[in-house]
């Protein structure tokens, strides 16, 4: 990792005082181990009541969201929208772990299924992608209407983190009602760089698994909506070719490169006026740390670059705030300090 990059992205003094630095568990060393361990050691059962709700997007599609309101919660108290990553849903383990933490702090939590994901399958003919920040805005404004006067945080993981950053940048010119701050964990800040890194031989298994999932989801979607016609997935062998042959043409982009250029959050980062925390790991296998060198986060964004952690792994050497899942504890700690809540 370039030494200059480490120095330029150290957290602020306040952030360093707020949390211990991440140190990986000795049994889960390296980016791949952290990534795989983080997924298979999912953990975290949902320990809170949930109401399943539908949001009309105004274009014929609906989103499915899962809302959990702490007992005694009152209008004006904090709320949060949580967004999963590619191949995820509102039931992703990291979302459940984080929702449990926030709920215990007294935060009203909405876990968002992106278009067609999870329990939202069949409610949307269109697919989600890294450019659909308008869908996140719709959920934030829906929540702001239900919780008038409450500060709302948007917390995204992986692809969801990119959507959170994109919305925050757009909110500088077109504010989203109630939006107070954003949290972004392992954002694919440069989509083209990520697609290229995914094609490295060492990432073959990740790329293959994502493609298998994407192909199966498209086949299922077209069966659910036969008028969409048959999905031509010939030649799709990587995430890049999937985006070039399916994501781009279905969503009005000229190509995968056009989609990546118009949807990447990195170039938009300087516009962000909201407070926020961005966490990334230098050994993330498929989101290259070099992509962050050209990203100019403003002073209101705390950017914490960990030497280790993999992709949404962050299994810590020592427990902090109840367990070894450093990432969710770090995000909750930052929010707790911002809102004056116990972590």
Word description of this protein:
With 343 residues, this protein is of the alpha/beta class. 36% of the residues lie in helices and 17% in strands. The chain has 11 helices and 10 strands. The protein has helices at 3-8, 13-18, 31-40, 93-104, 133-146, 159-170, 191-198, 204-224, 239-250, 256-263, 326-339; strands at residues 51-56, 62-68, 79-83, 108-112, 152-157, 179-185, 275-281, 301-306, 315-320, 323-325. The strands form 2 sheets. An 8-stranded mixed β-sheet has the order 1-2-4-3-5-6-7-8, sandwiched between helices. A two-stranded antiparallel ribbon has the order 9-10. Strand 9 and strand 10 (323-325) form a beta hairpin. Helix 4 packs parallel to helix 11, helix 5 (133-146) crosses helix 6 and helix 9 crosses helix 10. 49% of the residues are buried. The model is unreliable at 1-16 (pLDDT under 50).
SSE string: HHHEEEHEHEHEHHHHEEEEH
> Given the helix and strand composition, which structural class is it?
alpha/beta
Number of helices: 11
Proportion of residues in β-strands: 15-25%
Quaternary state of the chains: single chain
Tell me the helix content: 25-40%
Q: Taking strands numbered 1, 2, ... along the chain, how are they ordered across the largest sheet?
A: 1-2-4-3-5-6-7-8
Strand segment tally: 10
Looking at this protein, list some descriptive labels.
10 strands, 343 residues, globular, single chain, 8-stranded mixed sheet, alpha/beta, two-stranded antiparallel sheet, disordered N terminus
